[in-house]
Amino acid sequence: MTAPDKARQTFTVEAIPTDISNGAFFGNAAVDNVVSCLIAMGTEMWATQRRLKVIEAVMATKGITPEMIEQYVPTAEETVAWERDRNRFVDMAFGALADDGFRPASAEFPKR
What pLDDT does residue 15 have? Predict the structure, then answer.
């Protein structure tokens, strides 16, 4: 791998290490964990949006228009793969919201 060209302008910055794992926002561990997840997801979402803007700009220079992207129809195989990826993402990102781990001690647990 070659070293990056220092003369070339980029839009990246050095990572700033944080102590987010020890952060306390509301004094409730469960709520703090949700806030930490939201901050992390927001960071990842913006990084993805920024990368998508770069990809779209590069594609535009090669003649790929936004209309061409909007009109694209995925193949049956792509649809199946994309739905599988979407379901995996939803389970990973939101599965914990269905966790019964925070039921009060007096609650009746569902029969399985």
Answer: 67
Where does the pLDDT of residue 82 fall: very low under 50, low under 70, confident under 90, or very high at 90 and above? very high
Assess if residue 37 is contained within a domain.
yes
Q: Residue 45 belongs to what domain range?
A: 25-94
Which residues make Cβ contacts (< 8 Å) with residue 15, sequence separation at least 6?
A: none
H or E, element range at 32: helix 29-61
User: Which three-class secondary structure state does DSSP give residue 27?
Assistant: coil
Residue-wise DSSP of 65-79: -HHHHHT----HHHH
Regarding pTM above 0.70, the answer is no
- The count of domains in the chain is 1
Residue 17 in any domain: the answer is no
Asked if the structure places residue 6 within a domain, the reply is no
